[in-house]
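Service request form, structural biology core

Requester: graduate student, group of Dr. S.
Request type: structure prediction, single chain
Budget code: on file
Notes: please return the result as structure tokens.

Sequence provided:
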Amino acid sequence: MIFAVHRGTFFPGAYAMTNHTPIVLAAFGTSSWSMDTYRMMGAAVKAAFPHHPVVWAYTSRIVRAQMRKHGHSDLKSPGQVLAELGQTGREWAVVQSLHLICGHEFYRLVDEVNDSAIRTSMGLPLLTAPEDYREVAAAILATHPDVSGTAVVLVGHGTDHPAWTAYPTLAQIIGAAGGTHVHMATIEGASSMDETVADVLRSGVRHVLLIPLMLVAGVHLQEDIAGDDGSWKQAFLNAGLSVTVETKGLGRHPAVIDIFIRHIRDALATIPDRAPARDRKDC
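Core staff response, request fulfilled:
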């Protein structure tokens, strides 16, 4: 497998043979109504690489099982997708991680891809290179251009992997770019809800903007961030602050999708040159 170096939906006929490398979009998956985010992302990738087959894979076994209960019966793991591509005679595929950081889930994907019978080039997660952080920060601030007098609280999933440093790094970059109070919270991991609320109160602001730092705004948004019982929203309301909740995930931002598209281009660029130049005009 080759790693690229940085500088929603299954598409019919995705396994049809062409001269172009297949692109496998590897997402964790979602058991909620937010599959529309994947459809939006898939359409953008297909438009950016019109000659490349685009196929979806889902890395979470539990989420795949839950999604099947909602009628998504054709969901496959990355290993299954790569095996099927190999059966059609494919020698190479790009596997684009749709994870946010290079944490446990990403490295489990790497292990699964390593076992594939075909050769692969891995597109790296959203927050990998310095320009990724700057572009994500710009996308968030563009959606909320006036955050003066507001505490921006980013709420991520959290991890005990060393990649947790991506969270405070992004918060610092957003704060510096927007000149505002930015706090990083996580549903799991070291972030404490009580400590975060106390930090916001000490800053003196009276309004909180909660932003899910997640690709899709699914169950975590509905229950852990914006729910009525034990949520981050309720914690700030109980502290006497007003709260606004961003209801879309990062995957709905065109600028964020563009980062993944850039990562796919990076991954395609590492594959040995085997196709005629006229066939590579969109790579």
